[in-house]
Write a structure and sequence with these properties.
The chain is of the alpha+beta class. It has 3 helices and 3 strands. The N and C termini lie far apart (about 25 Å).
């Protein structure tokens, strides 16, 4: 999968979701490694497009409005 496509797909999933999505759920939906999903989410967070919070050991991501 192309780098830009992964970021776009993550944004699409988060925008269309009624609730925050964990990194594991994103990796399963996109059929990519957990670490890859985590890195792309962190990059999107640095650009200010998404934000997160932790639940125990899991990180839940959501699109900023």
């Amino acid at each position: 999968m192309v780098k830009k496509a992964v970021s776009e797909q993550i944004m699409s999933i988060l925008k269309n979701s009624p609730r925050p999505i964990t990194t594991r759920e994103l990796s399963i939906k996109l059929k990519i490694a957990w670490h890859t999903a985590d890195r792309y989410c962190l990059k999107l967070q640095l650009t200010g497009k998404i934000s997160c919070f932790t639940i125990g050991k899991s990180t839940a991501w959501y699109a900023k409005k």
